[in-house]
């Protein structure tokens, strides 16, 4: 007799393997007759391999249990060769910043609530963004912001959470070097020195920075923000506004656009952080795969257009 089909395949970050709160949440969901398989990551790439295996088995939902990096790795196993996924993604946010989960109004560090949401609410189709062909769900950041994300020590992130990124940014302020880039998109061209560039499918990154407060996950568009080389005082003010009141950001010092694709050229090279994954190149193409991933979300949240 063939085994009963699975309801959920949970990919659990290795650091969380002995977390009793997660184990209890899984036990309680199984007691509600949910058919669950759990796999624990050991090394980079495991979450991608597990997601691919689950999709090939026909499992309806793969759950990424960990931080934004675990979500990103899982996504790589669901979206391949630019093809939409028929397997849904669920998120149990147990990381440091949990930016994507927070913007999607998902439970954070509450495994039982997150698993119950996944089990009870059907998935909804959302867009997936691509950076030079690599899928991502949330935000790609270039320039100063990407360097700060990369340089913030893991142990500091564990102690201070999202504030760790801000603290690292302030302590590295004297090292800011503007970078020359050229950006092209439909009916848009821009060239100059930038302090930061963000290309967003989601809304926030870096532990609470609202880089795209009006972004929607299903509109087929990327929300782009360019912060040109502005005086240091103006830059600090912008950083504060992105945390406290993103709608009040002074548009005199920021360039924004919404676009289905854009290309960025950086003669001296550009470091880009793509949902926690570093990319370095002289040329980047960002684009959208519209409504290509089923994601378990609460109905009616404002990050969806419908």
Describe it for me?
- It is a single chain.
- With 306 residues, the chain is of the alpha+beta class.
- The protein folds into 2 domains: 114 residues, 3-Layer(aba) Sandwich (Rossmann fold); 155 residues, Tumour Suppressor Smad4 (Sandwich).
- 28% of the residues lie in helices and 34% in strands.
- The protein is built from 9 helices and 13 strands.
- Strands 5, 6, 7, 8, 9, 10, 11, 12 and 13 form a 9-stranded antiparallel beta sheet that branches. A 4-stranded parallel beta sheet has the order 2-1-3-4, sandwiched between helices.
- Helix 1 runs parallel beside helix 5, helix 2 packs across helix 3 and helix 6 crosses helix 8.
- The longest helix is centred in the last third of the chain and has 13 residues.
- The chain is elongated, with a radius of gyration of 19 Å.
- About 8% of the residues have low confidence.
């Amino acid at each position: 007799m063939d085994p009963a089909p699975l309801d959920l395949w949970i990919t659990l970050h290795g650091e969380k393997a002995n977390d009793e709160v997660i184990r209890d949440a899984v036990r309680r969901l199984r007691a509600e007759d949910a058919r669950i398989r759990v796999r624990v990551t050991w090394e980079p790439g495991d979450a991608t391999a597990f997601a691919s295996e689950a999709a090939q088995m026909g499992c309806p939902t793969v759950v990424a249990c960990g931080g934004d990096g675990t979500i990103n790795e899982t996504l790589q196993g669901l979206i391949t060769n630019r093809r939409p996924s028929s397997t849904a993604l669920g998120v149990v946010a147990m990381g440091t910043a949990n930016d994507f989960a927070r913007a999607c109004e998902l439970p954070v560090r509450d495994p039982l609530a997150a698993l119950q949401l996944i089990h009870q609410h059907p998935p909804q189709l959302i867009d997936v963004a691509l950076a030079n062909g690599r899928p991502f769900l949330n935000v790609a950041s270039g320039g100063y912001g990407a360097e700060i994300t990369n340089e913030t020590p893991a142990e500091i992130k564990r102690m201070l959470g999202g504030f760790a990124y801000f603290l690292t940014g302030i302590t590295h302020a004297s090292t800011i070097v503007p970078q020359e880039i050229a950006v092209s998109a439909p009916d848009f061209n821009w060239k100059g020195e930038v302090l930061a560039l963000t290309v967003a499918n989601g809304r926030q990154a870096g532990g609470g920075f609202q880089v795209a407060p009006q972004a929607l996950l299903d509109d087929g568009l990327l929300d782009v923000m360019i912060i040109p080389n502005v005086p240091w005082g103006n830059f600090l003010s912008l950083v504060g506004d992105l945390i406290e009141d993103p709608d009040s950001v002074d548009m005199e010092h920021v360039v924004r656009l919404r676009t289905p694709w854009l290309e960025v050229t950086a003669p001296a090279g550009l470091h880009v952080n793509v949902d926690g994954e570093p990319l370095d190149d002289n040329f980047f193409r960002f684009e959208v795969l519209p409504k290509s991933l089923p994601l378990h979300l609460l109905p009616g949240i404002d990050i969806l257009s419908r």
